[in-house]
Amino acid sequence: MSDFHQNGVITDFHNLTRRPVEALEQELCQFSKRRPMGLILPSLFSELEGPALSAIVDELVKVPYLNEIVIGLDRADRDQFLYAREFFSRLPQHTRILWNDGPRLRALDQELESHGLGALEPGKGRNVWYCAGYVLSSGRSTVVGLHDCDILTYDRSLLARLMYPVTHPRFNYSFCKGYYPRIAEGKLNGRVSRLMVTPLLRALKTVCGPLPYLDYLDSFRYPLSGEFAMRSDVLEGIRIPADWGLEIGVLSELQRNYSLRQLCQVDIADTYDHKHQPVSEEDANSGLNRMSLDIAKALYRKLATQGVSFSSEDFRTLKATYYRFALDLIEAYDHDATMNGLSLDRHCEEQAVELFASNLLEAGNLFLDNPRERPFIPSWNRVQAAVPDVLARMHEAVELDNQGKV
Fold first, then answer.
1. What are the tens digits of pLDDT across the range 91-119?
2. CB atoms near residue 54 (< 10 Å)
3. Fewer CB near the last or first residue (10 Å), C or N of the chain?
4. Contact 279, 285 (CB under 8 A)
């Protein structure tokens, strides 16, 4: 039997017995007759040239239960899009690529912007949002998974474990979040989650007081993981940030829209490694520097919608409180790494914490200075209310790009 426990907030399927992937896939094929499944892959063109994505496609070729695969392709010109069509052509599933920089989808994007409905900046959130719209337009999937395209240790059992809780006909979960140990090459990874999000949530509990929302986020073992699965109707009603706040934004919307009994998390891999972002101390628009800013702003916005008010003094207090929690955690991580024979560079860890602490204050200033900022992409329910035929026209544009001349 699978070993799981209720952590007080959401169901956590932890340390599952590692069933052979073939057994899981056999069951998922049966489940798919009732709940057809799709997969979203948000990708930069550069990832087609990297070491991970070709191996991911090799694994997906073997997956028997997927009804469709939708790839969101960013930063690609015409020749690169044509290359991508050939790159993904070996997938046996119904596969479509959203050429987000192509003339057809750009025209649709500009139309939405004229209605005040588009994503104001490019990023992973915008890419996922358009893929979600296409999934809704295709009507081929009632359950949709999503994972990143830079997973170096990918095998298809990760996807099977991720999809299983949402597709099982006796389960009532609408959303499943994946997690895994962030260990690779003898090192403890996952710096933004370990060194920023965890101590920040604890600091927010101290400064703002105990809140169900903060307890909810803190119950996720890896809130920043890019792997999750959901019922397709979830995609219609959620608003998500366009930037690096995507994962926090999705979790926040689910807490607002769904009973916690409908949400779960599951252990999906024994090892996980992917492309590591540089810290980019000197560039606030890239790497972990940009990521930490976006995540902090996403948290502040959500807390504001729940009635929490912030001032400059509050953010200064939060920075100091976070810094103390983070330094204490570094010591604990150092001991954990030592006990498990892993390496951890305390100097680099403390440098990252100093950057994150500074960015908490900077994100607070940005939040206070721009109260009229539109932080979320509108839900597809709202977009369809304003432009009723938008999904049909998106579907037509994607079909023409994938099957016609470009």
1. 999 999 999 999 999 999 999 999 999 87
2. 12
3. N
4. no
Question: Any residues with CB less than 8 A from the CB of 191 and at least 6 apart, and which?
Answer: 288, 349, 352
What pLDDT sits at residue 311? 95
Length of the chain: 406
Q: How far is CA 75 from CA 101, 102, 183, in A?
A: 7, 10, 30
User: DSSP characters for 342-384?
Assistant: -B--HHHHHHHHHHHHHHHHHHHHHHHH-TT---EEPPHHHHH
Q: Are 134 and 70 in contact (CB under 8 A)?
A: yes
Both tokens assigned to 105 = 């989808």
Instruction: Tell me if 156 sits within 8 A of 59, measured CB to CB.
Output: yes
Q: How many DSSP H helices and E strands does the chain contain? A: 17, 13
- Identify any residues that bridge with 99 across adjacent strands, giving them in sequence order: 73
Quick check: 279 and 355 in contact, CB under 8 A? yes
Do β-strands 175-179 and 228-231 pair in parallel, antiparallel, or remain unpaired? Answer: antiparallel
Q: What is the pLDDT of residues 13-71, one digit of tens each?
A: 986 557 899 999 999 999 999 999 999 999 999 999 999 999 999 999 999 999 999 99
pTM comes to 0.93
Listed in sequence order, the DSSP H helices in 17-170 are 21-32, 45-48, 53-60, 78-87, 103-114, 124-138, 157-167
**Per-residue confidence (pLDDT) for residue 285, from 0 to 100:** 57
3-state secondary structure of 351: helix
Contact 275, 52 (CB under 8 A): yes
Distance CA 195, CA 215 (A): 18
| Chain-centre distance for alpha carbon 307 | 26
Average pLDDT of the segment spanning 182-198: 89
For residues 62 and 156, is the Cβ–Cβ distance under 8 A? yes
193-227 pLDDT tens trace: 999 999 999 999 999 988 999 999 999 999 999 99
